[in-house]
Amino acid sequence: MSGFFCTTKEVFNRGKDKCNPIGFKIGLELMVRCKANPVVDVPITFQERVAGESKLSMKQNVQYVEQLASLYFEKYFVFILLLPLIIIFTLAYLKGSIQW
Hints:
The chain has four helices and no strands. By secondary structure, it is mainly α. The protein has one domain. The termini are far apart.
């Protein structure tokens, strides 16, 4: 995981009031909430650390998963609410159309 990201001031201003960054993934938060499109990867090569230790902990990993879930839920809120209904109606339809 790299902590380096770039964005324009226009993109940042579009969603800065909606951001609630947690831990290391501030760039992810900005990308989703500020609707940063297109997103471009710039390849970098990582090397072994010559001094110090990573600050990434298990707590940070858990926070990252929580952040992903929160962003996903926000983006697909309606779909998540409708999915169980779609499944129930589909199963009911299939049950009704199958004659034993």
